[in-house]
Amino acid sequence: xxxxxxxxxxxxxxxxxxxxxxxxxxxxxxxxxxxxxxxxxxxxxxxxxxxxxxxxxxxxxxxxxxxxxxxxxxxxxxxxxxxxxxxxxxxxxxxxxxxxxxxxxxxxxxxxxxxxxxxxxxxxxxx
Length: 127
Prior knowledge:
The chain is mostly helical. It has helices at residues 11-72, 78-105, 112-125.
């Protein structure tokens, strides 16, 4: 006959502790992921809003200044003024594209804190 009681199972409590620890880790990671997602969403919304307003205001200024330059040079050098403005706009466009590509390449990894926490947990759990 077996003298062990049902609560004396040597693997029972350790499996429960391991399951509880894994559930706690998972809960912590999901909370961190949700928090990072909310922060990123709010930051992205503000960024798009400010970029949109800046774009509209910048275009209005650009149209006004371009019209003023063309009007000033209308009698003598209107074609040269228009071509000069186009060249200046092309140079500005190239500078913006180069900076945008550089910014995309240098961008931080999304959800970096969550990935670091998962890596630390993997190191702790694996021998």
